[in-house]
Design brief:
This is 10648_t:CDS:1. The protein is an alpha+beta fold. The protein contains eight helices and four strands; from the N terminus they run αββββααααααα. It is elongated and about 170 Å long. The N and C termini lie far apart (167 Å).
């Protein structure tokens, strides 16, 4: 459908929805954007686990009419698939795109509806009579046929899945690197200032850089040295005070006392003469 047949407001709506789906794709769904025609909406749907379509990649196309969103769009499987609600030409039959349509439904809702159809097919409104009849008669035979068709036609993995995963991983790594760089830059800025101002050798720079780690040891060592110095000072002061204390006159012995007495008696006899 050419864009000139669709109103500008609808084109803006489609463009906005596609941008959202591109930035935040639903699980197992990737949209393809056509810059030349935004109304050419195509998408890849990964076959849901636990179904005969598991591991397959199915390309679908959403066709908007001039009366969209009042009338529902049409959906077509480009990839061949064996399914009761998908005709052999790829047209999809589901109530959401017919009687249950609501103009508020967006592209994401449409694609999710198709994905759910792969999980829960409805044989009562089959477009592929062979698939519908086989599903009603024997699910095992239906699943075997569907798996065979998936293995033949839906095994080509589109690059859009790999690119999105790589982009997500790259974005995560870039974000992590940016955070790390920022943290390093923040924490290292004081270190750079110290290095530029002091211009000390590398050993000194390392010591100053990791000062928070070295300081406790240095403080402990200096404290012990200070205590040793104080002890030496105390011992020195004690020795000095002992040396500077006044001398004590030794006591006289008993022999000295007798000698002094004799001298005194001799002096008194001389005075009498």
């Amino acid at each position: 459908m050419a864009t000139e047949n669709i109103s500008p407001s609808v084109i803006r709506r489609i463009t906005k929805e596609l941008a959202t789906l591109k930035a935040q794709p639903p699980e197992g769904i990737r949209v393809l954007m056509n810059e030349l025609n935004v109304c050419d909406v195509q998408a890849w749907i990964l076959g849901p686990e636990g179904t005969p379509y598991e591991g397959g990649y199915f390309r679908v196309k959403v066709i908007f009419g001039a009366d969209f969103p009042t009338a529902p769009p049409k959906c077509v499987f480009i990839t061949k698939i064996f399914h009761p609600n998908v005709s052999k030409s790829g047209e999809v039959c589901v109530d959401t795109l017919k009687r249950d349509w609501n103009k508020e439904f967006g592209i994401e809702h449409i694609l999710l509806t198709i994905k759910c159809l792969l999980i829960v097919p409805n044989p009562e409104s089959a477009l592929n009579d062979d698939a519908g009849k086989l599903l009603l008669d024997s699910y095992e035979d239906y699943a075997k046929r569907a798996r065979m068709m998936t293995g033949i036609h839906a095994q080509c993995k589109p690059t859009v899945f790999s690119n999105n995963n790589a982009t997500a991983t790259s974005t995560s790594s870039t974000s992590s690197s940016t955070t790390t760089t920022s943290a390093i830059s923040t924490s290292s800025s004081p270190q750079k200032i110290v290095t530029i101002q002091t211009k000390t050798p590398s050993t000194t720079t390392v010591a100053s850089t990791y000062a928070p780690l070295v300081t406790p040891l240095a403080v402990s060592k200096s404290k012990n040295e200070s205590e040793s110095i104080e002890n030496v000072k105390k011992n020195t002061t004690s020795s000095a005070s002992d040396n500077s204390s006044p001398s004590v006159t030794p006591k006289k012995r008993s022999g000295d006392k007798k000698l002094d007495k004799k001298q005194a008696d001799k002096k008194r006899s001389l005075k009498r003469l």
